[in-house]
Amino acid sequence: MFVFFPFSPPDEDGSVILRPGNKYEYKFGFELPQGPLGTTFKGKYGSVDYWVKVSLERPACPTQEIKKRFEVMDPVDVNTPELLSPVAAKKEKKVSCMFIPDGRVSVSAQIDRKGFCEGDEICINADFENTCSRIVVPKAAIVAKHTYLANGQTKVFSQKLSCVRGNHIISGTSESWRGKTIRVRKLKPSILGCNILRVEYFLQIYVSVPGSKKIILELPLVIGSRSGIGSRSSSMASQTSSEMSWVDLNLPDAPEAPPCYLDIVPEDHRLESPTTPLLDDPDGFDSPIFMYAPEFKFMPPPTYTEVDPCVVTNNNNNNNVQ
Questions:
Q1: Is the pLDDT at 322 greater than 60, yes or no?
Q2: Residues 138-173: pLDDT tens digits?
Q3: What global pTM score does this model have?
Q4: Residue ranges of the Arrestin C-terminal-like domain (predicted)?
Q5: Strands 121-130 and 115-116
Q6: Structural domains of the chain in order of their starting residue, each with its CATH number
């Protein structure tokens, strides 16, 4: 539907005469079609854009055109019962070395809901178990998946947006995450109802196993355009903290001296040639995970004192000069 509202009154027959030397302004209105519209989007293999084009046609003169881009946001409400329900999954992988069984690696994870908005924190509860002979590293990442559909062809583009990692897990041990968080940064809302484009998000919880493929656990996410529970609770917490006055805070007492380093490090933990895992390349597949550091011993730190030795030395030097 396309209508215009002239500021100049029309004639009796409804026509408007534009007289030379005068300025005329018209207010146009355009009603978007009912039903789901694709959200404005720009990606690697395509984009969804909306434009308003205005043309002025005059007899015996070239047509003048101008267009203006505008954004369309298809609302995604994350407060529906489906998106407020928890999401959980688990997976297990058997590890082998030269066709010889070498134990297994398992991961199970759960998040409290499926729908999130920008700035929300995703709380992850996960359990990892490693019974193989290798050191594994658990990680979690928010991944975007763009699916382009056109002319019977499909293109898929995936991108890792943010990532957190845990401590390495040695053979025969396990690790648990309880409330480990990863923040949802500024993202376009999920696009699920468009027949030419889909924008989906996943929380990947995976374990890097040296010499083998990762074990990947995917939990679906829906990024919405309306505030969710996490954002409201976060704003309430920030408001409460801002109302506190600094005069109500009690200064802590002077810290106690730390224990001696040699007293808290057992003798059996002072390795002559420790094996240090190479964890700088978190997503390497076949790169070696061990390096051998030169021999060293844990050296004790200097003794604890509340007096700065540098200040004392400077004062002694000044007294000697005087």
A1: no
A2: 999 999 999 998 888 899 999 999 999 999 899 899
A3: 0.62
A4: 101-228
A5: unpaired
A6: 2-70 (2.60.40.640), 81-229 (2.60.40.640), 261-316 (no CATH)
